[in-house]
Amino acid sequence: MLLKEAEQTDRITPWSKGGKTIAENKARTDLQKIFAAIEKINAETRKLQVESRWYPLLIGLSLFAAGGAFVKLFM
Questions:
Q1: Which domain holds residue 23?
Q2: pTM of the model
Q3: Exposure letters 28-54 (e unless 16+ CB within 10 A, then b)
C-alpha cells in the first residue's frame, strides 16, 4: 500500500535521496522498520526454541540429583 502511494507521487524534490520521491523514501523507511521488527521477533522465537529444548533436560537432571540426594540422606 505504501509503495502504491509512492508510485503515484512523481514529484522529485531536492530533499529526496537518489532521485526518489519523499513518498518512496518514507515507504522504504517504513518497510525497513517492519523488517527490523520481524527480525527481532524471529530472534526471540529462536531463543525460546533453544530454551524449550534444554528445559526438559534440566528438569530431568534436577530430579535425578534430588533423588540421589534423597537416597544418600536416608540410606
A1: 2-74
A2: 0.51
A3: eeeeeeeeeeeeeeeeeeeeeeeeeee
